[in-house]
């Protein structure tokens, strides 16, 4: 039992952590909300971690059934998600330099914070839990043993997702300290690098979906008998 629990937890964390990439999400959050106060950053980190937990848990448990109900395949999900992620990365990559400048760290006006809450979009989806992470979570959910998921698998899923959510919270909560250590110029370089990586990830997800769709069309055409004259 303990061996199965440990194996499943490590599988979930090892599969999702590199795609979610909490350190990058934490630094990107500094550019999305550059004027947030410490209390606001703590609240943003808490909400993004909670949203990410719910989104990954839903994808892991019922994602495959939801896609099947609407007739959406994994390749189509990757194409649509790749477009969203690439667009978000492109916008961050082309953001003005002063958007990353820590010298403008004035508190966010209450009225602006009320009308613009970025904790779900874009901080949770797609910058933290993007289509790639959702697709991996769905794939993990469909990889249950033949006898079906056991109680140990549900416990392992809860532990693994809690570990990832905790890392998301810590990285977003203390991203400003990393910014102070790196300095304004280095932080801007790192953020631009992460923005470019996000854009590349979006293009990669888009290409994976397109290649699977093209392969399916080719195989379908080969398997279909020709019409005899």
List the helices and strands and how they pair.
Blueprint: H1 2-20, H2 22-32, H3 38-70, H4 74-93, H5 110-115, H6 131-141, H7 151-173, H8 175-182, H9 184-223
Index terms:
single chain, 229 residues, mainly alpha, 9 helices
Contiguous runs where pLDDT drops below 50 for at least 5 residues:
100-115
Total domain units = 1
State the order of secondary-structure elements, H for helix, E for strand.
HHHHHHHHH
The tally of strands reads: 0
The N- to C-terminal Cα distance equals 63 Å
Fold and architecture overview:
With 229 residues, this protein is mainly α. It has one domain. Helices cover 75% and strands 0% of the residues. The protein contains nine helices and no strands. Helix 1 packs parallel to helix 7 and helix 8 packs across helix 9. The protein is globular and about 60 Å long. The N and C termini lie far apart (63 Å). About 7% of the residues have low confidence.
Give a short synopsis of this structure:
The chain is mainly α. Helices cover 75% and strands 0% of the residues.
């Amino acid at each position: 039992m303990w061996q199965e629990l440990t194996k499943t937890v490590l599988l979930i964390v090892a599969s999702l952590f590199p795609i979610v990439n909490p350190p990058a999400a934490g630094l990107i959050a500094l550019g999305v909300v550059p004027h947030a106060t410490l209390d606001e950053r703590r609240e943003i980190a808490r909400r993004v971690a909670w949203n990410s937990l719910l989104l990954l848990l839903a994808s892991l448990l019922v994602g495959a059934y939801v896609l099947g109900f609407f007739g959406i395949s994994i390749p189509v999900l990757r194409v649509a998600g790749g477009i969203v992620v690439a667009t978000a990365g492109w916008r961050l990559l082309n953001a003005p330099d002063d958007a990353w400048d820590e010298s403008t760290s004035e508190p966010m006006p209450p009225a602006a914070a009320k009308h613009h809450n970025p904790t779900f979009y874009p901080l949770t989806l797609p910058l933290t839990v993007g289509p790639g992470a959702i697709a991996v979570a769905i794939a993990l959910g469909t990889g249950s043993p033949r006898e079906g998921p056991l109680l140990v698998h549900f416990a392992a899923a809860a532990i693994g997702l809690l570990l990832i959510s905790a890392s998301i919270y810590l990285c977003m909560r203390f991203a400003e300290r990393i910014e102070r250590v790196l300095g304004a110029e280095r932080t801007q370089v790192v953020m631009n690098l992460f923005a470019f990586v996000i854009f590349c990830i979006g293009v990669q997800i888009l290409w994976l979906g397109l290649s699977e769709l093209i392969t399916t069309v080719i195989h379908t055409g080969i398997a279909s008998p020709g019409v005899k004259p």
